[in-house]
Amino acid sequence: MRTDTPQTIYRKDYAAPNYLIDTVEMGFDLDPSATRVATRIAMRRNPAAAGRDIVLFGEELELVALRVNGKALGRGDYRLAGGVLTIPGAPAKAELEIETLTHPDKNTSLMGLYVSNGNFFTQCEAEGFRKITYFPDRPDVMAKYTVMLRADRAKYPVLLSNGNLVEEGELPDGRHYAKWEDPFKKPSYLFALVAGNLVCQEETVRLKSGRDALLQVWVEDGNLDKTQHAMDSLKNSIDWDVKRFGLDLDLDRFMIVAVGDFNMGAMENKGLNIFNTKYVLANPRIATDVDFANIEAVVGHEYFHNWTGNRVTCRDWFQLSLKEGLTVFRDQEFSADMIGTDSGRAVKRIDDVRVLRQAQFPEDAGPMAHPVRPDSYVEINNFYTVTVYEKGAEVVRMYQTLLGREGFRKGMDLYFARHDGQAVTCDDFRAAMADANKRDLGQFERWYSQSGTPEVDASARYDAKSQTLELTLEQSCPATPGQKKKQPFHIPVAVGLLDARGRDMPLRLDGAKGAAKDTTLVLELTKARQTFRFTGVSEKPVLSILRGFSAPVVLKYDYSDAELAFLMAHDSDPFNRWEAGQRLATRRLLNLTVAVQAARQSGHVVAVDTVLNNIEHDGALTAALRATLNDQSLDPAFRELALTLPSETMIAEQMEVIDPHAIHVARQFLRRSLARELREDLLAAYRANRTPGDYSPDAGSAGRRALKNVALSYLAELDDPEVLELAAQQDVAANNMTDRLAALSALVNSAAAGKGEALQRFYEEFEAEALVIDKWFTLQATARGADVNTVRTLAEHPAFTLKNPNRARSLIFGFCNGNPSAFHVADGNGYSFWAEQVIALNASNPQVAARLARSLDRWRKYTPALQEKMRLALQQVASSPKLSRDVSEVITKALSN
């Protein structure tokens, strides 16, 4: 663990590397307690750099030998301090030989080379390669690698690395070897090694180019029956990338390997993708519809990195969104296309925006706010964020919105033509888009350099006499750490107008030539305030603004309840149809939250439910949800999304001061009220959307299950014996994990007498399935009746361990991030528990600890009483000895900003 004094690294200080590398040869003698690594590097001085020193980075290594051009170097020939090895005044050309010793079985950080369940794995992004050998471990140093792996054949029969297998054979003493050669230049963060006792599913496919390629999915023995969906997703990804972007697989083989101990979701190492088992293993017995969809998306994401990240990589880590934002956009488009219907694409879009609003908008409003292309960092692992990924994807999507799909493709083609095999910047990508389409995108750069979520205030004035509508848009962006004032963004705002019958009206801007024919226009907001004048508007319309969520902004427009209900019933844009319902529900929830607070402050002795029942009833929301629920023309998946209320986190973001308990009480009251009022409609939807027969994860079947199960979750709020019996029967009879988990959740979050027995049966049935037991922990950590003591008890369960990131996330993160009212309990016990867990994780896995540390980074937005307890917990972590850079950066920013 790195405990040196944290230093801030700035983008403005970028300097080209002193030396470039042509080839890297590596030999590994694999042993869990002591692995020897011999590395030979062909280096040459970089004509674009002024320095003459060779600078290498290393962590937690024993340096055995160091030679330059065959000459052994003594301690006086180099400097080694703070993880940096410097060879001063090196020759212009140097063959550098390094021997290091590392200890994989003690590497609990899961970065570099480590052991999981007796097998060897690597994770080198962002700076894990320096835990394997001393190296110029930076993304703009690209080279061709040849790797020799040697190990005990009985223990490690499978030896894998990047590229193509060129040689393998036997060695004395029961050992064997495998030699791998990667024909493409890559940065060190894409290096990968896997060695162990694994089995694989494999298929040979004919590529568009006419070549054959071997595809393999490697797993531990006993998991082969869970690999077909990952294999199908890989094949679909290869086909899609050729059809959509003309990008084909460039290797003779492509491998996916699943590992249970992994900090991230997956890693795009060239030709050897290493995955968290969560995003590979699936069959109907253990995986939900959401799991199947996530596997498809993540397999696609990592495969698409083969071009957007591997063939063209980022110059430095400040440019991380160059590869991640672009590739998230690509995997989103892939998943939408795999559904294959307009309604399915809309559901996917809504899902993506929900993630953005629930996670990224709060990040933009907190102490860890940073631009899509950050200006500085202390620990790069802390910048694998929803801003870089999800907001970065929205920035890429805006190119397509502004340029059209054809124009976006032209920009992509030029990007690869210019930069294949290079390490480049976000500005290079923007330039390719601009040049290919002959557009000035200079102002668009502010999406990369300015942090915060822009706000767009809209107002409209209709003139019946001239049949014109003036739409005025004003943009602003709140201050964020280090950026008090913001310049106007280039914001695409997609707009439509609906007539009194709910039909789209043809649109024409003042001064436009030709007849009005488009029913959606993309307005380009580039100034602080702009007015757009529509002509030929025959009647006063209802506005549909920001269709398809055309930009990652907060739209402020004074819709009436009647207008929102109208849009929810008629808007041809599915996103805005859903959005209208969310706005209605948010208004209702905020009013109820205020009522809860008022009742508590007034000292009423009557139950809060009684107080809430006496406030004005909102019939518009109930009527709109009933109409949507019963509209058979709508996709079941869309109806499920429409019925799902904004989360407690989303409601919290609408409040000046967050009161988690009041929000929870208000939301639960509204769920119970809707369940009572829609009981028969929900029961009808439940019965009509059963999916008898064999399980299939296709979008249509998944949508029906989603609608059926959201109906069950509402009905369970009533604690009605008939409904609880439905849930119990579904729990017993379900032939898939989606229905099984939904039924168990309904029981656990109700007053059902047998829920304890149901939980125990579930555990006993799936005890050997780690991914299912993760769900079991999460279900209990996020249950309404859970509290800190519940989670402490579960943390003592024999199946729980902090050493496995998935298991830690399932329980600890599930409680701290997924159960706000229980975590933010008034006595502060939730924060004490959080501090204990952050400190414990910091000692073993700083990267995971830093993610947990962010649970309190927005502590200043809560009620004063909670703020004080959060501050004390943050200070407790801050004063912990040997705090890692990862955690220190988060805690310092939380307390400072």
From TrEMBL:
Span of domain Aminopeptidase N-like N-terminal: 92-190
Protein name: Aminopeptidase N
InterPro entries the record matches: Aminopeptidase_N-like_N, Aminopeptidase_N-like_N_sf, PepN_Ig-like_sf, Peptidase_M1, Peptidase_M1_dom, Peptidase_M1_pepN, Peptidase_M1_pepN_C, Peptidase_M1_pepN_C_sf
Protein's organism: Herbaspirillum robiniae
Peptidase M1 alanyl aminopeptidase Ig-like fold domain mapped to chain residues: 452-558
Ranges of residues in domain Peptidase M1 alanyl aminopeptidase C-terminal: 561-895
Pfam families: DUF3458 (PF11940), DUF3458_C (PF17432), Peptidase_M1 (PF01433), Peptidase_M1_N (PF17900)
Enzyme class, UniProt record, top EC level: hydrolase
Peptidase M1 membrane alanine aminopeptidase domain segment(s): 230-447
EC number annotated for this UniProt entry: 3.4.11.2
Similarity comment: Belongs to the peptidase M1 family.
Keyword terms of this UniProt record: Aminopeptidase, Hydrolase, Metal-binding, Metalloprotease, Protease, Zinc
Cofactor(s) demanded: Zn(2+)
Reactions catalysed: Release of an N-terminal amino acid, Xaa-|-Yaa- from a peptide, amide or arylamide. Xaa is preferably Ala, but may be most amino acids including Pro (slow action). When a terminal hydrophobic residue is followed by a prolyl residue, the two may be released as an intact Xaa-Pro dipeptide
CDD domains assigned: M1_APN (cd09600)
SUPFAM superfamilies linked to this entry: Leukotriene A4 hydrolase N-terminal domain, Metalloproteases ('zincins'), catalytic domain
GO terms for MF: aminopeptidase activity
